[in-house]
UniProtKB/TrEMBL annotation:
Keywords of the record: Hydrolase
Class in the EC hierarchy, top level: hydrolase
Protein name, UniProt field: M3 family oligoendopeptidase
Its EC number(s): 3.4.-.-
Length: 565
């Protein structure tokens, strides 16, 4: 399942090793005299052209490192970016923001085209503190250390050393004893690295708390809401937590009883709470996975398959598992090339099939945006929007899972599992969001308290119907396997919000498939300078996570699952 790791999928149009040269390029922007609105617009364009060159090189180096965390030269290049170039960018970006915001022509820029940019830059000027640069560099170093530890994590399985994703895939095994064995093997692996994970997280929490204090906030949670320019409040999030607990968890408990019955078990244990009703993994080789996903995408819309096949042909997919490869999966943009790259550390499993479809939702969104508007700038990326199209792609392909599960009962089981995933994406990331609210508003917590809180929240949500007796400590420490808590803090609730939109998209698709796919493409190519609500509207759905909206989509999801006889 290995793939050739090539480095020719991105463009290096700027030498990041030449730090003086990079600094000269940026300084030249600061030296420009801006004497009209048109001058400012040209300056913004020149700034964008420079920054996307830097962004593509840094993104390529990061992906190289994730693909091979054990290569010393690749690691050195990546660390140079994080320890030298990133601090340089932080310093100069603050100066560029200040130059832009202080221009007398700043507020004369067209609101429709530049309104979001203005709000983001004004916010960044208010948030910037010189003393936070070394703290952010240290934060990145700790995240690199986390990737190295997780990338090197292996488990002994039947006398062989296996990558961690392989053990995760065994949770889908039909044999309950194999699932239980895999679950305990994962716990054992996590236990070995737990002291290191605790030390990294302890330091991250303190660093982030200090960053927030330096910027004038009481805690990192409040700071991040401003950093993310969220179009909703902290209280909105707490209300969402409660709405899901009230209206989604009871339905989840009923569905868990269905799965428990189909498994024929008396108690529903953690190793039963996985996709394990299909007879076999959906594929054995990465090439088979790619063949099938291309076909599924093509049956939904020819453009979707065209983009996938293009990425496959041009080395923009790295999907197999191998030692030294970082865990997880993601889709990232290459703004100069106009391409997207999908990285994943997959072993054959239902989850890996769905994860690839999910990332292709991001990729299609990226290609449509680039074709309509050119390179998307960082401030335009809002995850509540991006995740709508990744979740949406999963659900648009729901009726095509028979490509991998031709047996009728397996096909139905696969559909149930994907819809069960929709449930878990409503309450899973949301519970992770609540966990982070607690962590960063209680920054002096101990590692033991953190584990206890994680178990408590898990039992309120995803593990509500699961018998966890005797496993409280093991579940409590399992947060350490979630990279979001380390590398992208407070990137969680976006999944849950966008899943409500994706379920509306599925409802539309069931009523009129062609119209729903066209709405998907229209929204995925929309002007990202609009509000989130406006982009959702272009996709034919509502940006709404109020109690009535949560209840309605929960009822719809439960009905769809019940309709699969």
């Amino acid at each position: 399942m290995t793939q050739n790791v090539s480095h020719n999928y991105y463009q290096e149009l700027i030498d990041l090793q030449d730090v003086e040269g990079v600094e000269t390029h940026i300084q030249s922007l600061l030296d420009v005299q801006i004497e009209s609105v048109s001058d400012l617009e040209k300056w913004l364009k020149d700034e964008k052209n420079l920054m996307i060159k830097i962004a593509e090189a840094m993104t390529g180096h990061q992906v190289d490192f994730y693909r091979n965390t054990e290569d010393a030269l690749i690691k050195s290049t990546y660390l140079h970016d994080q320890q030298v170039i990133q601090p340089l960018l932080m310093k100069y970006e603050a100066k560029l923001d200040e130059k832009c915001c202080q221009s007398p022509y700043f507020h004369q820029l067209d609101e429709k085209r530049y309104g979001l940019m203005r709000r983001v830059r004004e916010s960044k000027v208010k948030l910037f503190r010189e003393e936070n640069i070394p703290l952010m560099v240290k934060e990145q170093e700790l995240n690199t250390k986390y990737s190295e530890i997780m990338g090197g994590l292996t488990v002994e399985w039947d006398g062989e050393e296996k990558p961690f994703p392989f053990i995760q895939s065994q949770l889908d095994h039909l044999d309950r004893s194999v699932r239980e064995k895999a679950y305990h093997a994962m716990i054992s692996a996590h236990r070995k690295i737990k002291p290191e994970m605790d030390a990294i997280m302890d330091e991250l929490v303190q660093l982030r708390h200090q960053i927030a204090l330096n910027a004038g906030f009481e805690n990192y949670r409040d700071y991040m809401f401003v950093v993310k320019n969220r179009e909703y409040s902290v209280q909105d999030c707490y209300d969402f937590h409660e709405n899901v607990e009230k209206h989604i968890i009871p339905a989840w408990n009923r569905l868990a009883d269905v799965f428990k019955s189909k498994l024929g078990v008396d108690t529903y244990r953690p190793w039963d709470n996985t996709a394990k009703l299909m007879k076999n993994p959906p594929y054995s080789e990465v090439s088979t996975l790619m063949d099938g996903v291309s076909e599924m995408l093509g049956k939904t819309d020819p453009y979707f398959a065209d983009r996938f096949d293009y990425m496959r042909e041009h080395g923009l997919l790295d999907l197999g598992d191998r030692k030294g490869k970082s865990p997880g999966g993601f889709c990232t943009s290459l703004p100069v090339s106009g391409d997207t790259f999908v990285f994943a550390n997959f072993s054959p499993s239902f989850f890996s099939l769905i994860a690839l479809i999910h990332e292709m939702g991001h990729a299609v969104n990226g290609y449509l945006e680039f074709s309509e508007h050119g390179p998307i700038e960082e401030y335009q990326h809002r995850m509540e929007v991006a995740e709508l199209y990744s979740h949406g792609m999963e659900l648009l392909l729901l009726d095509k899972l028979d490509r991998f599960y031709p047996d009728e009962e397996d096909f139905k089981s696969a559909q149930r599992e994907e819809l069960r995933r929709a449930f878990t994406m409503l309450f899973g990331p949301l519970s992770g969001d609540l966990f982070q609210h607690w962590m960063y508003t209680n920054p002096q917590h101990t590692a033991k308290e953190r584990d206890e809180k994680y178990f408590e929240i898990s039992k309120r949500y995803g593990l509500n119907p699961v018998d966890t007796s005797g496993l409280e400590a093991e579940i409590g420490m399992s947060w350490a396997g979630t990279l979001h808590y380390f590398q992208v803090p407070f990137y969680n609730i976006e999944y849950s919000i966008s899943m409500l939109g994706a379920l509306q998209l599925l409802e539309n698709y069931q009523n009129n498939p062609e119209q729903a796919v066209e709405a998907f493409k229209k929204g995925a190519s929309a002007d990202y300078n609009q509000s989130i609500a406006a982009i959702y509207e272009e996709t034919g759905v509502s940006f709404d996570f109020s109690e009535p909206a949560v209840k309605r989509m929960g009822d719809f999801l439960e009905k769809v699952i019940q309709d699969i006889h």
